[in-house]
Design brief:
about 800 residues; 3 helices; about 5% helix; globular
Amino acid sequence: MKKNTFLFILVSIIAGFVATVRSQTTASFTIKGQVSAQKRAIEAANIMVLNASDSATIKMTVSDKSGEFMFQQLKTGNYLIKVMAIGYETYYSNPIKLAFAQTLDIRLKPEEKELTGVTVTTKKPFIEQKLDKTVINVEASPSNTGLTAMEVLEKSPGILVDKDGNISMKGKPGVLVLIDGKPSYLSATDLANLLKSMSSSSIDQIELMTNPPAKYDAAGNSGIINIKTKKSKTMGYNGSVTVGYGQGVYPKSNNSINLNYRRNKVNLFGNFGYNYYGGYQELNITRNFRTNNGEDILSIFKQQTNMKRRQTNVSYKVGMDYYASKKTTLGFVVNGFINPSTENNGNTTNILDPNSILQSTTKAASQINSNLNNVALNLNGRHVFDSTGKELTMDVDYVHYNTLNDQMFINSFYDNTGNKMLPDQLLKGNLPSDINIYSAKADYTQMLKHKIKMEAGFKLSYVKTDNVSSYYNQQNNQWVMDSTQSNHFIYEENINAAYVSFSKELSKKWSIQLGSRVENTHAKGIQLFNGVSFDRNYTQLFPTFFLSYKPNDKNQFSLNYGRRIQRPDYQDLNPFYYFLDKYTYSVGNPYLLPQISQNIELNHIFKGLLTTGLSYGVINDLITQVFNQVDSTHTTYVKNDNIAKVQNYTLSVNVALPITKFWKINWYNQLNINQYDGFVNQGPIHVSGINYNTNFTSSFEVKKGLNMELGGFYRTQTQEGTIVANEMSQLNFAISKQVLKNKGTIRLNCRDFLNLQHFSGYSYFQNVDVQLYNRWDNRVFNISFTYRFAKGKAGVAPRKSAGAIDEASRVKSNN
């Protein structure tokens, strides 16, 4: 392991050194501009710099959402600019004699020619660094073939996923995950399951925003991750079909079909996905029970659990946009998924004395059958009042989740010679859950005097969860309810929010944005079995600030600040029990409070190639998982709690540039310092940790249509609340080939081909002494084939994403 880690770091350092040297020796002339047509910016136009003498391609890029583009590090010479966009005539500029920076205004003419097929010409980089966010272009990396959305996130710069699927960004926990601008409404555990079942073939981009502006919900301590699924801009009909197969220890499959049809004022779209996952986990836990002073060991529990999981995910989305006029668009979207799964666990607990001599053994077998169903309805409208930017958008959402969760546990007890000591204990549980979410929002934009852009809006949301936990013990061949572990919990939450923000370009070099969001929260919950309840009402203000400075074409600086909130997951408030075995379980906490964070960040982009960031954040009332130990019964349970104030310091450096015409590299580095000060189990906690993580992607264009990629990540030991996670690493390889006149793509990859990635760590404080080791079905070979088809004309404007942002990632369905 140490040898592999050393090789990984060495490869990263060499690649980064070559990239840095390359950036310092490249010429510094720049060509930038904007691409538009009929007073509308053209996104994703394919722009090339050609040699004027022989029309050879020198560089290539694509325009952003504002139609803007930039070429840097061009040598003195004569060039042509070529622009291609689906549905528009190809544009050629007049010859450009480059001896100083050039700014172009490119206007395309519509093309009426019928499309008989699709040729993919756009070559976006895998990672794009922008002042306000980082954009991951998923299809640009062949190693994303056959992966899930969670696995793509794990490769993204600054993103860490812990052993339980919790996502952190730039060293800070509490990320709000959106899908097409809308929340998933799932807790960390269930969100992880959803992302593990979502195929990368259905994803266009992933946006990472550490300090979102005021128009976004204030939820998410460390910012927002927005997963943008594929959408079409083509008239007529078009679509794609992807089939994929993966093989680790167990098989996996990712399949999807995307369709779009536009005729006159109506645009119909839909997609369907079928994914299958078979996998395993091996979890080893060693627990030392000590005397009250913590010095002497009384007993040692060594547990080994083997988990096998089978999961199927069927997802769907259908919708329509109706272009009532040039200024008004109405639409609806219906989407959902069905996610049945079965998990079979076998657990062996060996109980040893202080001298590690076996005293007894407990064996537990369990089966958990779950079915998570979801349906969501969105109605949306957009009206553009005039050409000055005055615009109103509205969204109404309804989301319903239903979870069925049946569990069966059998515990058997043996002495140190293997003979049965006690009769078997049988426990079964039935944990259904219903969640209904209603939301309405409106956003208004207008240009005021002195070119000040104003954005304002409001949002109303109401959530009700109804959760039952029924456990039964078998006594005399009859099932008897266990009232000490059963419960019925109802939770209601209403959030009313409003925001306003103002932005202005102060000069060609300076721009500023100021905003503020106010949110009132009323939450109440009741346990029907014992009548225990709570009722909370609070109002919070969340200011935001952005300042950018561009002294020249080579450098861009930005400074931003934001205050954010992370409310507890809906069902982390439930006082429910979730069992792994007789001695290990988790339980909810109805007394959880929201955690509040403040973040300030300074970024610098040099030539669009080198991005450096420095940030500081502080979180009050941090919500994190805590191990609790009951010495009298030798049981350990996990509970979320508000444990501490956390201070976080982060330095990040990202290098992204072409080493040669056929070799490109992206190398991300991050250094974190975390300091925790608070109380855990009525005892103080004062811990701090420094960690480093890096990931790189190195891509090679072997020849036209054939690409290869090598990538991976490495993370040092990390302090995660009361848990210390040891180092972790991974290496991936991929190859892709365009076929069938570029209408088809075959991709082959191997994830973690050296089988390096696993989790190990420990938690040691007060009377808790736990060591953990977790390995899963991580080395997987994937192969997939995608076929694209179309017939029609270009010109459909991209649909805007719908609303309902605030309740993201907070539903737990006991999956």
